[in-house]
Write a structure and sequence with these properties.
Oligomer: single chain
Helix content: 10-25%
Strand order of the largest sheet: 3-2-1-4
Structural class: alpha+beta
Number of strands: 4
Length: 70
């Protein structure tokens, strides 16, 4: 079984997405969710180019919200 690496994903104000791997120095972005998936896949393949296989990837969408407590 391949190990799993986790990316935290944030949505930017313009609607695009930014992804950052929590355990490796891998960062990427995409204009929409499908583009982000493609870019993450390419970035992971590039990072592990010299390995016999790549880990599985888990995308974790982080929703930022400010709560005003009165």
């Amino acid at each position: 079984m391949n190990p799993v690496i986790i990316f935290e994903v944030y949505q930017e104000e313009d609607g695009g997405f930014v992804a950052e791997c929590l355990t490796e120095d891998i960062f990427t972005q995409g204009d929409d969710w499908e583009a982000l998936r493609v870019h993450v896949s390419e970035a992971v393949k590039g990072y592990y180019f010299d390995q016999p296989s790549c880990p599985n990837v888990k995308l974790h969408l982080v929703k930022e919200e400010i709560l005003v407590i009165q």
